[in-house]
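Ticket #4471: structure export looks truncated?
Reporter: QA, pipeline team
Priority: medium

Steps to reproduce: submit the single chain below to the structure queue and open the exported record.
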Amino acid sequence: MSKLTVEGYGTFEVPADKRLVLAIEQDAKVDIMHACGGNARCTTCRVEFIAGEPSAMTVAEKQVLTAKGLSGVRLSCQMLCDHDMAVRAISRLEGTGRPDPGRTPEPVITPPPQWV
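Actual output as written to the record:
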């Protein structure tokens, strides 16, 4: 089990290797967006790391962040909870006017991860 701290929500024990986007939504009960269903396309699952940022990144995450000119954020759909981390959920359903945060992401990282 890893510990996930979500700013403003607390610290939660998360099953090993659970996708971060799912841990934030299901364990921390944060209304984090995932409009593309967790497929590294929309960047709505963005988080800022406070502590424990993983050094590895998927090729898909790197490509979409670069294409959208984003820095200082990571895509929670492209990470696993394999160590303790603390994040700030910066893209939430509240205030968007959307009916839901998007299709629930699969339990495994999609597309299949290639790490850089």
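Status: closed, not a bug. The export was complete when the record was re-opened. Leaving a note from the reviewer for reference: Residues 20 and 79 are 6 Å apart (CA to CA).
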